[in-house]
Amino acid sequence: MGEYAAKSSSGAGNGEVTGIRTVSFRRLLAAGAASLVGDGVRIAALPLFTAVSTGSPLAVSAVATAELLPWLLIALPAGALVDRWPPRRVVITAHVVRVVATGVLTAAVAAQVATVPVLIAVAFVVTSGETFADSAYQTLLVELAGRDELDRANSRYVTAETLGLDLGGPLLATAMFAWQPAACFGVDAASFVVAAVLVARLPRVRPASQRARSVPDAALRDPARPDALPADASLVRQILDGGRFLVRQRGLRTLVLAVMAAALAVAAANAVVSLYAIQVLAIRAALVPTLWIAQAIGTLVAARLVARLVAWRGEGPVMVGALVVLGGGFLAVAAAPVMAAAWAAYAVIGFGAGTWNVLSATRRQRLTPAGLMGRVTSAYRILAWGLMPLGAALAGPLAATTSLATVFAAAGGLVLLVAVVLGRPLTRDATPNSR
Q: What b-and-e string marks burial along 253-288, b requiring 16 or more CB atoms within 10 Å of the CB?
């Protein structure tokens, strides 16, 4: 097998070559990058437009809730359906739905008839499409990159995500919003058109339900076998199966516990960072986003170096090290309340988070059988992100009763505790046979 390409044995395109240097993978990555730029524009512009056009905290909150709600209501059935349907078709259909929704929003904003119900409906529909597209994209990434190159494939995806979602999209939205808010949503719609066209040119990948063997329920207790329920099983049964596999597979169970705790800590810190920057660091409000830019730079560096780090030290130790770096970054923010130190600390946080994101995604994909990819991905995201509202809710009372710095100290301490408690399992549970 060559360094960058190998014959597919997983069902992508009837013997198509797989690998990160193939045309198919590059096309998939370009499609992901296009939609991520659009997402970055919308994520920055939609709450800003809601605030400017309504001046209502309730309206802003309602739109933000509608944008997150599909991850709780739709992600699980979406994952089960993705395992039944051709992933390429799912991504294309999801993007077409998102094009229509954002096109309606563009027209409504331009005509000055974008009421709060319209904003809520569009936010819900666009994220609903994302729950389908995201799960199907994960399947395509594994199939087109090949399981042997998932670390490099995820490094490239995290780079595209950081550049598009965290940097390019918001900067583009900032430049365009002052000129014409409707143009922001028009760019979002155009990004989905580009992504859909690129995905349409990918090789066909059969649905996971056709690639997986039909086995009795007892086989699901053996994580080493790439099994799935029969395609004619009920949707509820398939959804429950994804969660059951996630809990029973020791490597995935360890991974999701670490992600849940880290998400709780990150959400708490994110909830108060703007206030901390203004009140404690004495940063002007206009410069607060520079902290996120520093974090994005750290993430880009991590995505560039993670494969070399894994080759040098091994996947497990690097994952544990990423948690230590992430926790140490939060502690540094609390310990050194000056602007320069905060910028450096957020670059460190970005490096730790970027390294963890690449390797945790790689391990989850590697440990998940093809026939369960959609369901396990959806269940994993709900568990991983489900604690984020709780972390944000706890940050306020903790800061009010102690200090803003205490929130960062608590976040760092929690992540370091996870590194200590789960360090050995994370180092050990790296193969599908781990139980």
A: bbbbbbbbbbbbbbbbbbbbbeebbeebbebeeeeb
